[in-house]
């Protein structure tokens, strides 16, 4: 089976940089995804890492280390609108179903 | 706008009742997923369909069932409702089951069981 661990809460100030970590256990690995969810709204896709290294998309970057079963989401130049929950997720390899399993989410609070 | 449409947005019903949640995936997407999110909880996978066929099941209760129709829309049926079924129910779709296919989520149906 799969399991993912991420911190439940992170607080940072506007303009700062914050890193949200995710460790995973999975019987097969096909990449780590990140999703953002604002207060009960629809989760939205942020990034996907299949290979080791850093992927950058504007102010957001995502990193993966497959040997460490670890990844993180890096948010730079924090803005108030970045206050949201962030979920890491992995695909389930069993049965080639492609279902996406999510972590419990990290609530990011950005303060002025 | 993700292109995924869920109806209704809100549903209030009593214990013991049955409800149906509806989802229309993004145009061209063949996979539909249902997730449950209870208060301050993560997204719990319920069930997945691909092109009309059930593809994967998560921790879906026997009181819950779903199907995907030939036009690819999907319905999630919840019966004998209990207070603990109160949650946000999200539908998501993806182009396929490819591992790099992102999920596109609808705005969810907020179910309140009283």
Notes on the protein architecture:
The complex is a heterodimer of chains A (112) and B (114). In chain A, 0% of the residues lie in helices and 55% in strands. Chain A has no helices and eleven strands. In chain A, the strands form two sheets. In chain A, strands 2, 4, 5, 9, 10 and 11 form a six-stranded mixed β-sheet that branches. A five-stranded antiparallel β-sheet of chain A has the order 1-3-8-7-6, with no helix packed on it. The model of chain A has no long low-confidence stretch (mean pLDDT 92). Chain B is built from no helices and eleven strands. The mean pLDDT of chain B is 93. In chain B, a hairpin with a 2-residue loop joins strand 5 and strand 6. The A-B interface holds A 30-31, 33, 35, 40-45, 48, 50, 87, 91-92, 95-105 and B 2, 4, 31, 33, 35, 41-43, 45, 48, 55-56, 58, 88, 90, 92, 94, 96-108, 110.
Q: What kind of assembly state do the chains in view correspond to? A: heterodimer
Largest β sheet strand count, sense and barrel closure of chain B: 7 strands, mixed
* Residues in β-strands, percent of chain B: over 45%
| Shape annotation of chain B | globular
Shape of chain A: globular
Calculate the terminal CA-CA distance of chain B, rounded to whole Å.
31 Å
Determine the structural class of chain B based on helices, strands and strand pairing: mainly beta
CA radius of gyration of chain B: 13 Å
Radius of gyration of chain A: 14 Å
Overall mean confidence score, pLDDT of chain A: 92
Say how many strands of chain A there are: 11
Poorly predicted runs of chain B = none
Order of helices and strands of chain A: EEEEEEEEEEE
Topology order of chain B in helix (H) and strand (E) letters: EEEEEEEEEEE
Helix % of chain B is under 10%
Describe the largest sheet of chain A.
6 strands, mixed
Biggest interface and residues each = A-B, 26 and 31 residues
- Work out the number of β strands of chain B: 11
What class, by secondary structure content of chain A? Answer: mainly beta
């Amino acid at each position: 089976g799969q399991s993912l661990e991420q911190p439940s809460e992170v607080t940072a100030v506007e303009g700062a940089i914050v890193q949200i970590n995710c460790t995973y256990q999975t019987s097969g690995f096909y990449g780590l995804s990140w999703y953002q969810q604002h207060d009960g709204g629809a989760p939205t896709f942020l990034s996907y890492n299949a290979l080791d290294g850093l992927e950058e998309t504007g102010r957001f970057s995502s990193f993966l280390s497959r040997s460490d079963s670890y990844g993180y989401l890096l948010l730079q130049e924090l803005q108030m609108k970045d206050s949201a929950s962030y979920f890491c997720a992995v695909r389930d390899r069993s049965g080639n179903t492609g279902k996406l399993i999510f972590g419990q989410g990290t609530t990011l609070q950005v303060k002025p | 706008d993700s292109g995924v449409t869920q109806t209704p947005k809100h549903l209030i019903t009593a214990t013991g009742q049955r409800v149906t949640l509806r989802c229309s995936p993004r145009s061209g997407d063949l996979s539909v997923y249902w997730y449950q999110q209870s208060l301050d909880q993560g997204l719990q996978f319920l069930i997945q369909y691909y092109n009309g066929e059930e593809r994967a099941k998560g921790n879906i209760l026997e009181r819950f069932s779903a199907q995907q129709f030939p036009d690819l829309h999907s319905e999630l049926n919840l019966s004998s409702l209990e207070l603990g079924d109160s949650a946000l129910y999200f539908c998501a779709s993806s182009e396929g089951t490819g591992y790099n296919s992102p999920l596109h989520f609808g705005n969810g149906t907020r179910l309140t069981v009283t």
